[in-house]
Protein: Deoxyribodipyrimidine photo-lyase
Amino acid sequence: MDKEKIAIFWFRRDLRVNDNAGLYHALKSGFKVLPIFIFDKNILDKLEDKDDARITFIYQEIEKLKTQIQKHNSSLLVKYGKPDDVWANILSDYEVRAVYTNHDYEPYATERDESLNQYFSKKDIPFYTFKDQVIFEKSEIVKDDGDPYVVFTPYKKKWLAKLKDFYIKPYPTEKYLTEFIPVKSFDLPTLKSLGFEKSTQHFPDKEFKNVLKNYGVDRDYPAKDATSRLSVHLRFGTVSIRNLVKVAQKEKSDVWLSELIWRDFYFSIIYHFPHSAKDSFRKEYDQIKWRNNEKEFEAWCHGKTGYPIVDAGMRQLNETGFMHNRIRMVVASFLTKHLLIDWRWGERYFARKLLDYELSSNVGGWQWAAGSGVDAAPYFRIFNPYEQVKKFDKDHKYIKEWVPEYADPFTYPQPMVDHKFARERCLDTYKEALK
Structure:
């Protein structure tokens, strides 16, 4: 008996049914649609912590997604393995006439998709991918001569000028959910079978918190609950970027909208300059002679530098998987400028710990701190941790929460390096490398 000809939608960084570009096009393809998700062994094998909270988060969202799809007489097929092997098995089990998914922009993902595109092409199976996790991508926002922007402000100006209702109109996937293939429920691999344990970390809710009214004023104060905490949901696509832009417009929060534009900007940078994922955007900054003291790096990682604002941030990260954006800048500046430790060390640590880890934004942020990225500010911008406390945590509320012993000279360490000495050492080191 001939197998039913079907299309497949591959969920990746878009773990939602509503307003999903690729899923919408798959459901309108004329074929019944089998939805799948692959726990990619190539990615999972590189994770150091067996209780990595992100895997638990993804797993829980996959459970929710599967339940939602089952309401439409279908199910979510979840596989674990290397994508090449998984796809070979799927194509042997089903008569697949088309594969749909949404774009991913990170170097590994683009290489994987190009390889799979060639594989599908040999099988005479079209591989359709769509823009879904950003508003503008690739070369949609470029200079008049076609060159990519490397400075945020003119990029933002053109982004805002181009934005029309068309770009934030939701995809009405709900109208077509009857086009899922009718199947019995598929078994879900256990976390243990993936090589992981359940994390006990708390995950922020994706229901939007109404913090936008005073966002522009309050967002810099880490003790205030003044940010949306939606970054992990944006990272894995459990919310729609189009909807969030509409919310920013409705609430007239230009500052919050600007943060969303920064995200598009960093996606653009990583797309046009893939070398910047591992090397300095400004290549001359790779000449800096980093000290890379491993003991000092460990002290930074564990929040034992003797600088309370730095230690508070690192302890918050280690315990919750979250760090306030203002504090991210402070701890990154401290590592790269005070300790002269390569920004890549810090970037890798954040990659290990952050729930919302996003390669493009994380690399962009770390190179911003190190002075080696696209930011136009000079390298001698060095955050003074004491001044940061005076400006953004003057009552020490944030510090007291994460470093309760900070005022006890018998239990809290002395500063591991003098600020004035560290600043001068940094300036001398950078000047020597860049002359």
The beta strands are 5-11, 32-40, 77-81, 95-102, 127-130. The two ends are 73 Å apart (CA to CA).
